[in-house]
Amino acid sequence: MNTIWALAGVVIKELYRRKDFYVLFVLTALITIAAGMVNFFNDPKIVRYVKDICMLLIWVSALLIAIVTTARQIPAERESRTIFPLLAKPVTRWQFILGKFLGCWLATGMALLVFYVFFAIITGSREQYWPWLTYLQAIWLQWAMLAVVIALSLCGSIISAAPSSTTTICFIAVAGILLVGGHLNTVALHQAQPLQTIFYTIYFLIPHLEWFDIRDRVVYDWGLLNWLDCVRATLYAAAYTGLFLLLTWLGFRRKSLNT
Amino acid sequence: MKASPYLVLALVLTVCFTLATGIEPRASTWSDRAKSNNVFSMLFGDGRRLFANQFFTMADVYFHSGYYPSVFDLREEGQKEIVAESHGHTDSPEDEIKEDFLGKPKDWIDRFGRHFRITKHTHLESGNEREILPWLRLAADMDPQKIETYTVGSFFMRTHLNRPREAEAFLREGLRNNPGSYEILSELGRLYDENDHDTGRARDVWQLALHKWAKNPEAVKDDKLAFEEITVHLAQLERGAGNWPQAIHWFQAAQKVAPDPNALQQRIDEIKKTMAAQTNAPAAVPH
Amino acid sequence: MSIILKTEKLRVEFTSHEFRQTTKIALDSLDLEVNTGEVFGFLGPNGAGKTTAINVLLGFVPPTRGAAYLFGIDVRQPIARQRIGYLPEMTYYYKFLTAEELLRFYARIFGLPRTEADKRIDQLLKLVELEPARKRPIKSYSKGMQQRVGLAQALINNPDLLILDEPTSGLDPLGRMQVREIIQRLKNEGKTVFFSSHELGEVETVCDRVAIINQGELKASGRVSDLVAQHHGNLEKAFLDIIGYQTQSAS
Predict the structure, then answer these.
(1) What is the model's pTM?
(2) What radius of gyration do chain A's Cα atoms show?
(3) Domains identified in chain A, total number
(4) Residue A216: its chain B contacts at CB < 8 A?
(5) Does residue A214 sit within a domain?
(6) Using one digit for the tens of pLDDT, what is the confidence trace for C175-228?
(7) Does a structural domain hold residue A259?
(8) Domain range holding A127?
(9) What are the helix (H) ranges across A37-162?
(10) Which SS3 state, helix, strand or coil, does residue A132 take?
């Protein structure tokens, strides 16, 4: 476990020493503050649109941080050849993958926390209301979803050596699941065979990341989600994360690494 | 000969300035976009109108606190449509949501996923209606010719949010962008009548609305409901002011296009009765 | 004297999937034995298979046939690498870390306690003369400094066997001399060093024994002095004779 934590530590240091996170955070903060300063019909109590915009920016930024950070991990290790002195030490390839995963997940979680604190300050200062538990559920579910996304990106980076192509493919896949994934069964109903079977198969195979998007509940003040459902969703995310990590390991364990 | 870099820089700057002063008067006639004080107009040009419907729909989504069908849900057949809360302003598709569009869960994924979605049909109330205003403002900026934006926005501001002056300003902005709009004038008349109780201004505005309606051949052919609405408002205004013949005149005008003329006839009869009672009243006084 | 590194009939084939499927034999029946405490030079021209052999020893490439052992343990077991240090040919370490952070990271991988790791990091930074630059990010280091930080990471666990792949490649004469001195010091401490190199002069200076391979096959091995004596000249002449290179003057 010490090895995995050590590997994760390097990934976390990388995130906060690179400029990606700061750029995204400053961009989110600027857009949110600018949106919040717009005067609509002299009514200062209007707040939901600011929450909506800020949440959208948080989601996009978190996905970018997670996918971009993860997709470059293994290719960068190979390109800079740091993987060789690393794997020449008593580090198994499974530990290497787990370390990279944990690092990316923790780093993204830290970034997410900063974003949510900003969100809470901005919206709370306008409506004088802090539903902490709702925020906690939102951040937890988003973080659980990002675990699946990170594992998927790690798996993609084993298949494709170019971080840019892994990033693009993962981003399209995740955006596709979030926007269409939950409606594939409806789409399938209107298709003829064999398309119907294909759509249903995809629907039952993909991780349903859209469940973890409870932005509407936060923006429209729908209150807390059932905690048991939170636990179930977490287990679901853990299962898919495990699946993708296993696939990553299967692809990486026998891979020849030529110096 | 070696030229000083500062001299070259000064020369280039002079050339730039000279070119700019020469080109600027011509360039200003090339396109109106750069001169626009609307950021969306500058960025998207006329293409911004594409976003207006989306923002108008967002206002509807907000009004229903996120309970809203997606394009996939709208494909589902055999569902009952309801008008969300048109308040007589519009019955355009943007204002409609399909009640129970979710239907019964199709599978376990759908069933479990609903725990995270908004599955309850509600409307904003207690002043929270204000949350729809940013989207209506954006819709108006994106497509200043979309009349429903002004009427719906004004309706909520004057009836739910007690902001008649902002509502009036919004309607006047709509009028500047759509000088021939009898719908906006009709709404403005309601504001003067119901909020300001200014009978004279309301009368003038509604009469102008009727004038605009009559000059619009498409409206005369297809939008008889607007004529009925304005004439009934005028009739009620005159009835309230005690101008009985005027009130009867407007009710009779409305009867020509009303789907249920008998209901209006009842009101005319009521006025006639009141008129008769007033005429007979002095005779009833004992000497 | 015990055997610390051993290969038995090692064969590695690479199959190319581009255009037509072709198989290249990178190593064939390679038998090597390195004893405790000796400095062993692994020589060969470019493409001879030196790096492939090292890759097999480190578990990066699985052998097609044969076996390799470190400390008597099959190299496929990660534990075989617990007591080794490895310096790859030219590596660009994590640019965003400082030398100290890099060494602490590797120390954690070996599970060194904090106090021991601190002590070891101080010693190594002094050894590779990077003490003044310990807090600077690696991205600001020169090529020579990067190679020395690489050497420091290879020594973090105080290894009994050091595997160096072209340790002086790309370094200026001063850098090469510093690396040579470090190897000499390690030899004096009783460490075993296995290194591949093109620099025959430095091999002759520091090595006890050498093995020469060409086209994946072992051509010769033995004490440097014996090989030099057999070929009536210096190590360079012996090397050229063994790989079958005919100089123009000779022909």
Answers:
(1) 0.84
(2) 20
(3) 1
(4) 66, 117-118
(5) yes
(6) 788 888 888 888 888 889 998 887 788 788 888 899 988 888 888 888 888 888
(7) no
(8) 2-254
(9) 48-79, 83-87, 93-127, 132-159
(10) helix
